[in-house]
């Protein structure tokens, strides 16, 4: 369902999805439909005059019906950055193809940060059955992936974190030249506009980039107690993106004027008037157009409501379709493991290990009850009105989820954090809509103990999986085989993480709230003594919570590494004028939320393209390009 962007002078198609986020029938569905309608009627939220409508056609070329200098595939976290940065060059034409719609207005409200998961704005991928994970759901794990401008970055918790410097130095030391921490720090800074200058170590941060970074305007009081609980256990607090990543903090998030600062909002909307930038939404790329005679990419094929199309890229194609999407497009186009491609009936263009090296973070939820009924904010129209009027109140944050800690388990090496803990709860959500005075919202929270959850997450997993073709049809989902907990050490490290969380719950700082772990045994694990290592190991493999932190399927590395798909310039080996820029190029996944590292890759990759074509201009004595006046 779509609607206009309110009564403003500009119109665009704004997806409505909140109505089903609390169930499809009854009072909850009606209430959420009303909330959705109210949000979509606010021009200050919808930003209608800077939105992509898809009405501008791609320019025609002398040979092909559609022809541009650069074609960017995927308008998610990375693609929005790349398209914006390349279109700073006024002499270049840049096309961006996104399979989903514009980023809906409701996703920008922090309280609804993840409400789009499971809707039509989500690719709704499922893994292959796992023997050691997600056993409560038959071994099948859900993999939410954003299908809209902004991508998965438009439906997650907005947390800004970068990872430890040693991780990037390990990339450099493995032969990925130019990707050590000192090499990538300038690109973290370039994207960042940190607005909490008194909270950060300035030498590690940027203050005039496109992406606003700051704390939420609202947080439950318990969040501060969680940070103090971490201090009580010996962890530091402060800037976790500075000289030391380890510790607890109220996280900085990507938010501006109370609304989510997705890369679509930060990069694409300010560039909406550039005559050389063309953004097509609801346009799914189905494959690359490759020329075997010169081993180069000529363009891409895509489908939209009008049918099938081919657009030529005069200079380069950049894949920013994500860990699943970029790998899948390469595979269906004939770039991947030759034997696998032949089995799927795909002609081999280049034999490369595409889809291998798949990495992911995993977590588990540990429930607890607290005496915090006054902290359990209701989702009411008064709360909605407060947010729309002042950008404050409970809708202006994700509740306890903005609190995080980077931990070192007994498996940590050299003090590098290998686990992270989030807390969930005390946010206005579906079970806090008091549409019925005798309903669950009143009964559960009015004078009763409230539930909260700690979510320990292991960050440096050893288990690796793969993405492969199920068929040669580009519209069929690929095989996603993460091989969770294939290495039993990952289970042991998760149990260690749980022990840290249980210690955190028993600190003096949290005794104020009388935080008590829920000791109700998981039925599937009742054969083990509660709180034994065997019990928690069972919980880990039974109630696995995959995070949205996938990486690695188009691994960046030196050309002589048999696992390499792209070189340190992000160029696909053996295929001219084709690059990948997203989390799939990470040799090893960062030990953090991946949005900031993905933006860094996109910023650095965009500069690489500019440098490449500057060199081409110089070497071939052609007129140089000029930068547009709208560039940063």
Automatic annotation (TrEMBL):
Residues that coordinate or bind FAD: 152, 285
Gene3D superfamilies per UniProt: FAD/NAD(P)-binding domain (3.50.50.60), Glucose Oxidase, domain 3 (3.30.560.10)
Entry-linked InterPro entries: FAD/NAD-bd_sf, GMC_OxRdtase, GMC_OxRdtase_N, GMC_OxRtase_C
MF terms in GO: flavin adenine dinucleotide binding; oxidoreductase activity, acting on CH-OH group of donors
CC cofactor: FAD
Pfam families (UniProt xref): GMC_oxred_C, GMC_oxred_N
Record keywords: FAD, Flavoprotein
Domain Glucose-methanol-choline oxidoreductase C-terminal: 462-602
Domain Glucose-methanol-choline oxidoreductase N-terminal: 69-362
PANTHER family with a match to the protein in the record: GLUCOSE DEHYDROGENASE [FAD, QUINONE], GLUCOSE-METHANOL-CHOLINE GMC OXIDOREDUCTASE
Family, as annotated: Belongs to the GMC oxidoreductase family.
Protein name: Glucose dehydrogenase
Organism: Aphis gossypii
